[in-house]
Amino acid sequence: MYLKNAFSAAVAVSALAASGAMADTITIATVNNGDMIRMQGLTDDFTAQTGHEVEWVTLEENVLRQRVTTDISAKGGQFDIMTIGMYETPIWAKNGWLVSLDDLPAEYDADDILPAMRGGLSLDGTLYAAPFYGESSMIMYRTDLMEKAGIEMPDAPTWEVVADAARKMTDKENEIYGICLRGKAGWGENMAFLTATSNAFGARWFDENWKPQFDSEAWSNTLNFYIDLMNDAGPPGASNNGFNENLSLFQQGKCGMWIDATVAASFVTNPDDSTVADKVGFALAPDTGLGKRGNWLWAWALAIPAGTQKEGAAKEFIQWATSKAYIELVAAKEGWANVPPGARTSLYENPNYQAVPFAKMTLESILSADPVNPTVDPVPYVGVQFAAIPEFAGIATQVGQEFSAALAGQQTPAEALAKAQALTVDEMEAAGY
Fold first, then answer.
1. CA distances from 178 to 150, 231, 260, 291 (A)
2. Residue range 44-82, pLDDT digits in tens
3. What's the pLDDT tens digit per position in 83-125?
4. Residue 18: left if φ>0, alpha if ψ -120 to 50, beta else—which one?
């Protein structure tokens, strides 16, 4: 199967290369997550098929977002491919900043992309970014520490159950922390986690008239619960921890639980990197009984900025990196547990992947996220862990700094929420809402 798919992809890519006539060197901006690092290690396969060389600019998540946003809005032309997500794609496509991907060849099988991912990376039915991997968020927990504490984790727990388990598993003298959660400031770092969590607590960014809601009881409940839990059961210095920092802590055996991106499951269960690889269980992100779980929906995707001089080569790379054949390539070299998840329906129909212990929970988490109706009360925006308006990234970056400062003990949760409300009101009024 691998050889057949790889051959088909090679023929399709080679045909595209022939039409482009000359080999190019393309520059790709991407995030320093494990799946992207793995992709860089396999790029020789792409070069062998097409003749195109690849130069990588690999950046920490917050820096990547800033760099690509600045470059594309200023038409800087530094990159031929950018790694972006569901927030940027429809906004940038509407501005005319992205190249349509609707002309990828039939062999690529765009209809195989999971509907939730394809919808979030499209504008008016046109695909503008191809998902390298898709994710929701879920609980990853230490089965041995749960057993030691006399606790059983249900498949769909409440926040009350999670908090109780986190406190019982905590053993600070031995550097075991019951729960590791994002604290690093950033609209895609702590605010991704806290916005998704707030949905479960009945909070929302804006009411139906675009009035900011950080002065609500629901937001107060969210932030106070989070900070109290992290003070009791979290690691020291948590206000500096994002995805990669918490991944490292979990792999070192220092976290009883970690609620974060489903894509992390392959890294925490990889015995080459994780000291607790054989002691990890999975559950849906928690709720509070109000009808919404605290899980997000995201895809790291590859997009081509309008105006690149190397559109043909860029499309060939995207076709290679987000294809069924690439998944087979990773499986052959690294094992099925390490293929990029969450992007293609066919992956979850593959018996080889169905045997992976976290595959089912990942798919359930992705399917349970509802970006059209993300909150308990109605909202005028689309997006689970973000509001899909151009102003959101800037506002949420500032709010994230206030919440991170509260976690660090530099101000109270009430002070952080008051500042968040004031700055969001100012920004939204200035934007004409």
1. 14, 11, 14, 26
2. 999 999 999 999 999 999 999 999 999 999 999 999 999
3. 999 999 999 999 999 999 999 999 999 999 999 999 999 999 9
4. alpha
The CATH code of the domain that includes 389 is 3.40.190.10
pLDDT tens readout for residues 213-233: 999 999 999 999 999 999 999
Arithmetic mean of pLDDT over the chain: 94
Residues 179 and 44 in one domain: no
Q: What is the pLDDT of residues 344-367, one digit of tens each?
A: 999 999 999 999 999 999 999 999
- pLDDT at site 22: 83
Q: How far apart are CA 273 and CA 268, in angstroms?
A: 7
Angle between helices 413-430 and 217-233 (to 10 degrees): 130
Q: Per DSSP, which regions of 32-86 are E strands?
A: 53-59, 81-84
Which residues, 6 or more positions from 282, have their beta carbon under 8 angstroms from its beta carbon?
A: 138, 139, 140, 141, 265, 357, 358, 361
For residue 360, what are the CA distances in angstroms to 112, 276, 357, 363? 18, 21, 7, 5
Domain assignment present for residue 364? The answer is no
- Kindly state whether residue 246 falls inside one of the protein's structural domains: yes
Token digits for 53?
């060389």
> Domain tally for the chain?
2
Domain residues for the domain of 141 are 137-295+381-430
Give the bridge partners for 127, in sequence order: 122
The answer to whether the Cα torsion of 298, 302, 307, 312 is positive or negative is negative
